[in-house]
Amino acid sequence: MIQGHAHPVIGAAIRERYEKGTHFAAPTEDSVVVAEELKRRWQIPQWRYTNSGSEATMDAIRIARAYTGREPVMKIFGSYHGHHDSVMVSIAGEYEEIGEPDALVSVPYGAGIPRSTVDLTFAVPYNDARSMEHRIEKPTKEGSKPACVIMEASPMNMRLILPEPGYLEAVREITERHGVILIFDEVKTGLTLAAGGAVERFGVRPDMVTLAKTLGGGFPLGAVGGSEDVMSVVKDGSVYQVGTYNGNPLGMAAARSSLTDVLTPDAYRHVERLNDRLIGACNKVLDEFGLPGYSLGLGAKGCVTFAAEKVTDYRSFQANRDTDLSRLFWLYCFNRGVFTAPNRDQEWTLSVTHTEQAVDAYASALHDLAADLAPA
Ligand code: PMP
């Protein structure tokens, strides 16, 4: 989360909320203020709340299915959208089992997922609009086009991959032409790539957006947004989108204070300046010592990808990444007091409380690693 830990403004909002009560099974004013703010940032008018990213993607898919009357779901090879059945298909580590992108077979990730659900989900490679169109046109076993394409505009669990020029525009055009709902899963990209997430950053407008993580500033909160037309299936009661803790007062207080008082234009300028500094410093070390890899990022997000070739999709990530170097770098960071996500496929998120010293410590760990590995 871009707010950092224990931000005093969020802490004060949470304490104030706690004093007033934390559960009424009815919305608080904060949920309206947050929805208005999300509408302003995303130019998407209608929002519903959840408690997690998984719930947000689950609800988005159900809404897309209800709206289109179709059942299949298309996703991107290697992507992660949470732990519910429809998306626990073809995620990291199983590409080889799936075979070629054209193969009409999907593989569940883990036990306990019904085959009938897995069969409704299929995947195509990232950065490949032709494969997407091909699969949309090719009838599934059920003979139906997908209800939706759910994707991260910029995938974040294979380190960080950027869209090639024209890719997202092509995805938008193809999905629109086939009446397929385009869902940008912005659980990670939302509020981090820019104030208005990937939609603002890349200028491509999906039909629906899912949010979580940074939105709650450390509290469990997710959201799903869409046009009035698509969200009408919730409004008219045909999709039951509910939950005891949906829009819970603590999460909403954290989101309200984050959006109105913490994630200001200055905050984004701060993290972007630090991100440029960090990416530049990492690339300098990689170049200087000839380590196989590169650093890139956008907004508050970035990474060092240790790979012989540039990674453009899950397959090239699997084929080229150097897992030994990644593991070693994680340890070099850890031993120098820099704690990054234990899952080494993840990107970094800079926060409003990070400083130049903090990002320099990360680059300096990379320098130590490169120097130790350099031939004597
Ligand atoms: N979508 C994306 C893109 C994610 O990265 C994640 C979590 N890593 C999720 C959905 C699921 O979110 P949660 O863990 O809050 O259920």
TrEMBL record:
Pfam families from the UniProt entry: Aminotran_3
GO molecular function (one): transaminase activity
InterPro entries found in the cross-reference section: Aminotrans_3 (IPR005814), Aminotrans_3_PPA_site (IPR049704), PyrdxlP-dep_Trfase (IPR015424), PyrdxlP-dep_Trfase_major (IPR015421), PyrdxlP-dep_Trfase_small (IPR015422)
Gene3D superfamilies: Aspartate Aminotransferase, domain 1, Type I PLP-dependent aspartate aminotransferase-like (Major domain)
Keyword Transferase attributed: yes
Family matches, as PROSITE patterns: AA_TRANSFER_CLASS_3
Source species, domain of life: Bacteria
Keyword annotations from UniProtKB, A to Z: Aminotransferase, Antibiotic biosynthesis, Pyridoxal phosphate, Transferase
Cofactor: pyridoxal 5'-phosphate
Key word 4Fe-4S present: no
PANTHER family for this protein: GLUTAMATE-1-SEMIALDEHYDE 2,1-AMINOMUTASE, GLUTAMATE-1-SEMIALDEHYDE 2,1-AMINOMUTASE 1, CHLOROPLASTIC-RELATED
Family of this protein: Belongs to the class-III pyridoxal-phosphate-dependent aminotransferase family.
Protein known as: Aspartate aminotransferase family protein
Annotated source species: Amycolatopsis ultiminotia
